[in-house]
Amino acid sequence: MFRYGCAAAALALTIGCGRTDPPAETDRRVTTAPTQERDIHSYARPDEVAVTHVALDLRADFNRHVLTGTATLSLNRNGSADHVILDTKGLEITRVSAGSVDLKYTLGNEDRILGRALDVELPSGVSEITVAYQTSPGAAALQWLEPSMTAGKKYPYLYSQGEAIFTRTWIPTQDTPGVRQTYSARITVPRELHAVMSAEQLTPQGTETADGRTFEFRLTNPVPPYLIAIAVGDLAFRQVGPRTGVFTEPAMLDAAANELADLEKMVSAAESLLGPYRWGRFDVLVLPPSFPLGGMENPRLTFATPTIIAGDRSLVSVIAHELAHSWSGNLVTNATWSDFWLNEGFTTYVENRLMEVLYGTDRARMLQVLDRRSLDEEITKLGPTNKDTMLHMDLAGRDPDDAVSDIAYEKGATFLRTIEATVGRSQFDAFLRGYFDRHAFHSITTAQFVADMREHLLKGDKQLEDQLKVQEWLYSPGMPANAIVPRSDVLDRVDQDANAFAGGVAAASIRSSSGWSTQEWQHFIAALPEKLTPAQLTDLDRTFGFSERRNSEVLFAWLRVAIRNHFTPALPALERFLTTQGRRKFLRPLYEDLMKTDWGKAEARRIYGRARPLYHPLSANTLDPIVKAGS
Predict the structure, then answer these.
(1) Which candidate in 216, 264, 297, 322 is catalytic?
(2) CATH code of the domain covering residue 544
(3) Which of 291, 482, 503, 607 is deepest in the core (most CB within 10 A)?
(4) 359 is catalytic
(5) Can you give the CATH number for the domain in which 360 is found?
(6) What residues does 160 pair with on adjacent strands?
(7) Based on the domain organization, do 515 and 469 belong to the same domain?
(8) How many domains, the chain?
(9) What are the C-alpha distances in Å from 55 to residues 165, 181, 183, 213, 293?
């Protein structure tokens, strides 16, 4: 880990708005050939039979918290293969058929991480099967929200989060990023609600039925299954550009649309660097606060946390990140989760390049410095020899989500910046653009990336490859010695202010802080001494109002200072923050900080007991072992 509206007066659902999509993309190749590495997180055998298209016909039951219906799968059979293996987890399978003929199928043993394999016998000539099924109320990909958990407080809400291997909890398919699939869907929901998906909307207002409203969608670009996404709720839409706009609840629409007013500029800037945007539209869905990520790059409709709504567009780098995924991740995808850095490292690098174009070099450099500090802290925490600090990850026997850290993002981006600094920006940009063209709509491995780089960038120059330390970056822990170190003159001046405050200068005397950006405030707070006196903490909070900040990044940084210094006046703000948003990036460090202190353990458990029902399973699965530690 995005979209618009028509007339300004249309705060209700103006989703139709006469929108038009560009001509169909001509190069939409479904990749069915196996990659060089088997995906250990899928039962699928795509080299024998591969799913190429998924057609969903589902009904959302908000009373029972289940989706019920069918998934019809188009298959590409290789030779004499007579079985197709699908991934499922927690699904109740009621029938598998080909036309009117029932097919024999078996469900394998349950694996804690992988779920159960669905093995379907394929008679000769069958190239399409239909699976009738129902999801479980606890499906990890789906969060069903009561009206009280939404901004409007009137209607329930549903959204999905498929990455990394959660799609199998709501769709029976080959749930591996190495197999790309197109999809279509008919989604029936209660009459007062609207459905959106990571696909073209064929019926923007839905079709009235006897018991609800049905929406239809299609995506003709092949994507890995984790990018099939759905949301259902009381949604409004505001157009902000010819191909960009914002979906969210009506109460949040004005603020969200204002914050994301630069979407069209972002898309144009990305195209100038990476080539044509191939997904038609780039809309953003701003979700309720429980969403566990900053953003999720679902094609055509990025899902985003409301914590990016700061009021000054200072946190829109999250959206730049998800937009960059339209190339790195969605267009060219990691073939296995061990290759996750190919998605996130490239995206983080491009995100910063976009921020440079849109908001200037100073903003980009500040973000680089902050990100590098976060990376260094992560390596220190894990240990420089820990295998989890390698870019190509060893995930045998592990849930891929358990290994998500700043390594794939920031070490990956630093690797690419180091290459850029070594070969020159113009040469690296040419390689980057060609890379996305050469592998468009395909999934690749780290080994395939290295082969591509050797052919198209290094061009057989072994000395340059050794200078770049390519193998060390990819397959060794820690940070190679040639890693580029970012600098920011702006943040150097902030360091001086932090040092002055630590030396006894009053907070009110800090020069020009009233005009600081979010990044300057983040850096200032992080540069403060580990231990501060109660008087210093009180001075900071009274002068700068940290505990009342609306900006989630600044408040988060301050709350970490408050926890380690047991600054009790900030504890109400801490509890409020932990119980009103579910973004894992913020939750995990704050709960970890609390659990490191004697007084904080009881507070963490008390707050978590209240907040856990509000969190998405992705966040809860991360936090459970943290808060229960030492119980």
Answers:
(1) 322
(2) 1.25.40.320
(3) 291
(4) no
(5) 1.10.390.10
(6) 142
(7) no
(8) 3
(9) 19, 10, 6, 18, 27
d(CA 24, CA 77): 27
> Which tokens is 539 given?
């001075």
**Which residues have CB under 8 Å from 473's CB, separation 6+?**
391, 411, 415, 418, 480
CA distance 584 to 388: 19
Task: Say whether both 336 and 313 belong to one domain.
Answer: no
pLDDT of residue 184: 98
Active-site annotation holds for 322: yes
- CA 436 vs. chain centroid, Å, equals 20
Using one digit for the tens of pLDDT, what is the confidence trace for 540-593? 999 999 999 999 999 999 999 999 999 999 999 999 999 999 999 999 999 999
- The predicted model scores a pTM of 0.91
Q: CA–CA separation, 416 vs 420, rounded Å?
A: 6
Residue with tokens 């001086």: 496
Q: Are residues 252 and 184 in the same domain?
A: yes
Catalytic residue among 43, 155, 159, 409: 409
- Residues 319 and 336 grouped into a single domain: no
Residues whose CB falls within 8 Å of the CB of residue 148, separated by 6 or more in sequence, listed in order: none
Q: Are residues 247 and 284 in the same domain?
A: yes
Q: How many residues does the chain have?
A: 631
- Say which DSSP state 411 is in: I
Domain span including residue 244:
49-324
CA 482 – CA 471 distance, rounded (Å): 13
